[in-house]
Design a protein that fits this description.
The complex is a heterodimer. Chain A is an alpha/beta fold. Chain A contains 12 helices and 9 strands. In chain A, about 45% of the residues lie in helices and about 15% in strands. In chain A, helix 8 links the parallel strand 6 and strand 7. Chain A starts with a helix and ends in a 7-residue tail after the last helix. By secondary structure, chain B is of the alpha/beta class. In chain B, the strands form 3 sheets. Chain B has a 6-stranded mixed beta sheet, with helices on both faces. In chain B, strand 9, helix 11 and strand 10 form a beta-alpha-beta unit. Chain B is globular and about 55 Å long. The chains are: A alpha/beta, B alpha/beta. Chains A and B meet through helix 3, helix 5 and strand 6 of A and strand 2, helix 1, helix 8, strand 11 and strand 12 of B. The structure holds pyridoxal-5'-phosphate (PLP).
């Protein structure tokens, strides 16, 4: 089975460049604006789009992404509407891979058996579920693989060599290396430590390795992209979005471009990097 | 949901931390290696006679155990039915059952070489117990507490600070216990290399529900021996309030395989079950939060709802996974008491027995007031008096004063 993610990384390999991976929250600041933002991202240079599934209790996220999720929930976002967002995006873009990222409970309540075919049909390519380590693979990871979706695992600085094979065993699409021990949007990643960590993971897998958490600027994204197969940026984009909102937290005429402009600058940083990896 | 009835109700969890479908290890990868280390450290400690001996020493001389099993004569007379015994956990050092668990976890943390301790707290009792033992063992202590709880449990905030702990008022969400736990988990993910998370109830990822239960089981173990001495037999029923469920599990667990013992847990019904409440079994369904699968209050999209209770210690939209299991297999009956019922029971015990209970066990006492009159006079009922009411005196005083004027 080949997903849009596999195809995208094969193309990038031929071009000799790293993937620019963006994270935005479904329904933030409202469902319609969020759709416009997601639509604008490929044009801005995003190679892969991660879409956050809002959750009331995001235990691995910092204040920016927490607030984004709450804005979305307040605007009436649900998992059903997140799938609709993907469907609407797919109507005009059949190439850009979409990865849904979030926490397990909304999927568990939707029903795993119903969610997987619905997500696949909507045009979702992969899932990143923060609170499902390999120890809980039977819950969603194995059924997702069977349903033709990539299950992308997080590897962290605490994932040692002994544990890495277990983490990688049922991972597909790519490996997401969390470059810091911490929540999203806190510390920034140190590129030499990242490069060593990516090399360590690559000793255990042929999958592409993308790096995220703590990348905020085009320069930092450039730096990371030299050492990895992709750089993920989330909090910085969400901060740009927040900065464009009016006093009531509602979207303004600047909201979509605030995110897209920063994404374009970050994309330049990533795409200008010569890949040292491989 | 039907589940097979096991040979023993006391054999859980399995190796992967499950009680039936409940429990598990739903945590971020960053924490997973540490959770596996903790499981190993706890198993090693449990098998080490020196650990048990050291614990027993502190439980006796520092905590003040065993706590008495006291015949509440005037309450019994007043209710006119079952003979009511109070398990006096409120007499422990720091004023509640929380210290039993904290002592155990701090000793495990010391074995693991962790010097920085974090905790979440609702009523502040777990925070006070953690601050106390950190002071005793010279450890850094950070306590996360919802800003609403900081306001309504001021006496405990002041105590924690006097003991040298840093209290962080959590400003997100409903600013109560659930949000405090989220913030504690975020701290833990960030400082995993040097930090031990001392969870205050039988919730969280495996091995916490098991470990906290084991440390609290001394409540039920003592009760068995004491009731044997006082009445020459087992009690007929047990009753305890449920926030996450640690004082209840501590009393219940040693009796789960005694079929003659009826067991009742009491959740917080807040303004009533059709209104704002914190009764996850009565008003929730199975979901995944804070590292385990359990009954939770949530909406149809799986978004977690806030609990509501007059008692900060019960104001949590979940319950420990072992309770969820005991509920589905029917071994324990789960009831609920409203804010008003708890307030009335709070006053009744104060006036009849000269014991001011915490608002949390006042919920259990409220149901004692319903059950006891329906039972024969030779029925032996044990209530877990999990904490004393000093921390609630300002809050309850304000409520009662507001009613007079
Ligand atoms: C006195 C007392 N009882 C009960 C509880 C509820 O916790 P648990 O259900 O874990 O015993 C608390 C929590 O703060 C408490 O302070």
């Amino acid at each position: 089975m080949t997903t849009r993610i596999d195809t995208r990384f094969a193309e990038l390999k031929v071009e000799g460049r790293a993937a620019f991976v963006t994270f935005v929250m479904a329904g933030d600041p409202d469902p319609a604006t969020a759709l416009e933002i997601v639509k604008a991202l490929p044009k801005a240079g995003a190679d892969i789009i991660e879409i956050g599934m809002p959750f009331t209790d995001p235990m691995a996220d910092g204040p920016s992404i927490q607030a984004a999720g709450l804005r979305a929930l307040q605007a009436g976002m649900t998992l059903r509407k997140t799938l609709q967002l993907v469907r609407d995006f797919r109507a005009a873009d059949d190439k850009t891979p979409i990865v849904l990222m979030g926490y397990y409970n909304p999927i568990y309540i939707y029903g795993v058996d119903k969610f997987l075919p619905d997500a696949k049909a909507a045009g979702v390519d992969g899932l990143i579920i923060v609170d499902l380590p390999p120890e809980e693979d039977a819950e969603l990871c194995l059924p997702a693989m069977k349903a033709g979706l990539n299950f992308i695992r997080l590897a962290t600085p605490t994932t040692d060599d002994k544990r890495l094979p277990a983490v990688l065993a049922n991972t597909s699409g790519f490996v997401y290396y969390v470059s810091i021990t911490g929540i999203t949007g806190s510390a920034s990643a140190d590129s030499s430590a990242v490069s060593a960590a990516v090399a360590r993971i690559k000793r255990h897998t042929k999958l592409p390795v993308c790096v995220g958490f703590g990348i905020r600027t085009p320069e930092a994204a450039h730096d990371i992209a030299r050492h990895a197969n992709g750089a993920v940026v989330g909090t910085a984009l969400i901060d740009a979005l927040k900065g464009s909102l009016d006093a009531d937290g509602k979207a303004t005429a600047r909201t979509v471009s605030a995110v897209a402009d920063l994404a374009a600058a970050l994309a330049q940083g990533v795409h200008g990097a010569k890949q040292a990896a491989e | 949901m039907t589940q097979a009835i096991p040979n023993s109700y006391r054999s859980g969890p399995d190796d992967t931390g499950h009680f039936g479908i409940f429990g598990g290890r739903f945590v971020a990868e960053t924490l997973m290696p540490l959770i596996l280390d903790l499981q190993k450290a706890y198993e090693d400690a449990k098998a080490d006679p020196a650990f048990r001996k050291e614990m027993d020493g502190y439980l006796k001389a520092y905590v003040g155990r065993p706590s008495p099993l006291y015949f509440a004569e005037r309450l019994t007379e007043h209710l006119g039915g079952a003979k009511i015994y109070l398990k006096r956990e409120e007499l422990n050092h720091t004023g509640s059952h929380k210290v039993n668990n904290v002592l155990g976890q701090i000793m495990v943390a010391r074995r693991m070489g962790k010097k920085r301790i974090i905790a979440e707290t609702g009523a502040g009792q777990h925070g006070v117990a953690t601050a106390t033992l950190c002071a005793r063992f010279g450890l850094e202590c950070i306590v996360y507490m919802g800003a609403v709880d900081v306001a309504r449990q001021q006496p405990n905030v002041i105590r924690m600070e006097m003991l040298g702990a840093k209290v962080v008022a959590v400003q997100v969400g409903a600013r109560t216990l659930k949000d405090a736990m989220n913030e504690a988990l975020r701290d833990w993910v960030t400082n995993v290399h040097n930090t031990f998370y001392c969870i205050g109830t039988v919730a969280g990822p495996h091995p916490y529900p098991m470990m906290v239960r084991d440390f609290q089981s001394i409540i039920g173990e003592e009760t068995r021996v004491q009731m044997q001495e006082l009445e020459g037999r087992l009690p007929d029923s047990l009753i305890a309030c449920i926030g996450g469920g640690s004082n209840a599990m501590g009393l219940f667990h040693p009796f789960l395989d005694d079929p003659s013992v009826d067991i009742y847990g009491v959740e917080a019904a807040g303004h009533g079950l059709t209104n704002l409440h914190a009764a996850s079994i009565a008003g929730g369904r199975p979901g995944v939060l804070h590292g385990n699968r359990t009954y939770l209050l949530m909406d149809e999209d799986g978004q977690i709802q806030e609990g509501h209770s007059i008692s900060a210690g019960l104001d949590y939209p979940g319950i420990g996974p072992e309770h969820s299991w005991l509920h589905t297999i029917g071994r324990v009956k789960y009831l609920s008491a409203t804010d008003e019922e708890a307030l009335a029971a709070f006053q009744l015990l104060s006036k009849l027995e000269g014991i001011i209970p915490a608002l949390e066990p006042a919920h259990a006492l409220a149901k004692v007031g319903e059950l006891a009159p329906t039972l024969p006079k030779d029925h032996l009922m044990v209530v877990n008096l999990s904490g004393r009411g000093d921390k609630d005196v300002p809050q309850v005083g304000d409520i009662l004063k507001g009613r007079q004027s």
